[in-house]
TrEMBL record, chain A:
InterPro entries for the chain: CTU1-like_ATP-bd, CTU1_C, Ncs6/Tuc1/Ctu1, Rossmann-like_a/b/a_fold, TilS/TtcA_N, tRNA_thiolation_TtcA_Ctu1
Entry's EC annotation: 2.7.7.-
Uppermost EC category: transferase
A Pfam family it matches: ATP_bind_3
Protein's name according to its UniProt entry: Cytoplasmic tRNA 2-thiolation protein 1
UniProt pathway: tRNA modification; 5-methoxycarbonylmethyl-2-thiouridine-tRNA biosynthesis
Chain ranges of the Cytoplasmic tRNA 2-thiolation protein 1 C-terminal domain: 293-323
Keyword Transferase belongs to the record: yes
Organism, as annotated: Myxozyma melibiosi
UniProt similarity note: Belongs to the TtcA family. CTU1/NCS6/ATPBD3 subfamily.
UniProtKB/TrEMBL annotation, chain B:
Name of protein: Ubiquitin-related modifier 1
GN (gene name): URM1
Domain of life where this protein originates: Eukaryota
Keyword Chloroplast in annotation: no
Native organism: Myxozyma melibiosi
Gene3D superfamilies found in the cross-reference section: 3.10.20.30
HAMAP family, A to Z: Urm1
Positions of crosslink type Glycyl lysine isopeptide (Gly-Lys) (interchain with K-? in acceptor proteins): 82
Family note: Belongs to the URM1 family.
List of residues that carry 1-thioglycine: 82
Known pathway: tRNA modification; 5-methoxycarbonylmethyl-2-thiouridine-tRNA biosynthesis
Pfam (any one): Urm1
Length: 348, 90
């Protein structure tokens, strides 16, 4: 077997063999010290932002992936170690994607046992007139489906939390994700989002539920290694429908930057945090969102109908057209072709 | 002299290798010396074992492991050990 030659000792405890090089500091440290600093830094992030208060009930958005699995594990650990007095619940969204979400939900169910936390699963199918992502993609194709999934998921997390009587949801966004988002918002000129995307707690007029990101300063590399060394049970398949080309490009760019400037990720986040964006003129500034509710579903919305209901209208209109065309007698053979033709003429 | 390896793929990388998570193989230095490195192993995996055509999901610019893929040698971060230049001994 290949073996490592004798090497220097852990830079923190000077007792054990190092297991990794920290991307943040370049320090070579052993597993035990790594667990300790990784958890302690997240604890510091939490206390610096006063994220929780004793007796608070908080939902952890759990997908079964590495980030949310590490988040759930670390939250449970820190809650016990530092007596936050927080009541955690796992909250999962079932988008209805066969071969992806059904398998990852099995992971979440195992996590529920492993961490003995209650679990609530809410599905698109139940929330949105029977539309699962598989059905949506079958209807609209695989081009814009991430738009639907994004709008639906945001609302689904809120509704799941509301069902539980909870108004604080944690998500597993990590430092790499956040740097990508900052960069994407700059490249898109999305100044409204650029302003807020690095905040650890987001609370907006569009959502009644507070979101926060305790892993905001945790590097993906450390999250993956934490899960690996702790032997956490997580699911690692990418969504079957997600090309997310723009984010992928931003990710590659950041990874390349990191090879020549190791602090790239934290620098981009820092830039995002300290941008002070000047609003131009009084007109745009005056256009403040009026918080109202969706006429149809009662979800918070600044328009008559919330985004999810608008998308649903489009889907339902399409479905109606499909059914009519299928009911025509005599064209059973070209049913599929006909459906496709019908769909080509639809626009949302 | 050939060096035996056990290669494990995880986190989705196994998809590029026909879904195989654990692979046992034995490799000798292509230069007929005793200086077999991890770079040689990566090249071998890429040329001989990869079943998926999306090479750039694994290596870029020749045979450099794509940034973002974590490599562990004997369960330790390869960044501790000179990465691809790490010399494997039988």
């Amino acid at each position: 077997m290949p073996s490592l030659p004798l090497q220097s000792l852990c830079e923190l405890c000077s007792a054990q063999k190092p297991s990794l090089r920290r991307p943040k500091t370049g320090q070579k440290i052993c597993q035990q010290c790594f667990f300790h600093v990784f958890e302690t830094e997240i604890h510091n992030t939490i206390t610096a932002a006063s994220l929780f208060h004793p007796g608070e009930r908080v939902a952890i958005g759990a997908s079964g992936g590495k980030d949310s699995t590490v988040l759930a594990h670390v939250m449970k650990t820190l809650n016990e170690r530092y007596s936050y007095g927080v009541d955690f619940v796992l909250l999962s969204i079932d988008e209805g994607i066969r071969g992806y979400r059904d398998d990852s939900l099995e992971t979440v169910k195992r996590n529920q046992q492993q961490y003995s936390l209650p679990l609530k699963i809410v599905s698109y199918k139940d929330l949105y007139d029977g539309w699962s992502m598989d059905n949506i993609v079958a209807q609209i194709g695989s081009k814009n489906n991430c738009t639907y999934c994004g709008v639906f998921r945001r609302q689904a997390l809120d509704r799941g939390a509301q069902m539980l009587g909870i108004n604080h949801v944690l998500t597993g966004h990590n430092a790499d994700d956040m740097a990508e988002t900052v960069l994407m918002n700059i490249l898109r000129g999305d100044t409204a989002r650029l302003d807020r995307c690095t905040e650890i707690i987001t609370q907006s007029a569009e959502s009644p539920i507070k979101r926060s990101k305790p892993l905001k300063f945790a590097y993906e590399k450390e999250i993956v290694l934490y899960a690996h060394y702790k032997k956490l049970d997580y699911f690692s398949t990418e969504c079957t429908y997600s090309p997310e080309a723009f984010r992928g490009t931003a990710r590659t760019l950041i990874k390349n930057l990191e090879t020549v400037r190791s602090s790239a990720i934290i620098d981009i986040i820092h830039s995002g945090e300290t941008f002070a964006l000047q609003r131009r003129g009084g007109k745009n500034q005056a256009k403040k969102l009026v918080a109202g509710v969706c006429e149809r579903c009662g979800y918070i919305s600044s328009n008559k109908l919330c985004k999810a209901c608008v998308l649903l209208d489009g889907l339902n209109a399409g479905r109606a057209a499909v059914q009519i065309s299928l009911e025509k007698p005599g064209d059973q053979d070209d049913g599929a072709a006909l459906v496709r033709k019908q769909l080509e003429h639809l626009s949302f | 002299m050939a060096v035996p390896f056990t290669v494990e793929f995880s986190g989705g990388l196994e998809i590029l290798f026909g879904g195989e998570r654990v692979m046992k193989l034995s490799l000798a230095s292509p230069r007929d010396d005793d200086n077999l490195t991890i770079a040689d192993l990566v090249k071998h995996l890429c040329d001989e074992k990869m079943t998926d055509s999306r090479r750039d999901m694994f290596v870029i610019e020749g045979y450099n492991v794509r940034p973002g893929i974590l490599v562990l040698i004997n369960d330790a971060d390869w960044e501790l050990e000179g990465e691809a230049d790490f010399r494997a001994v039988g």
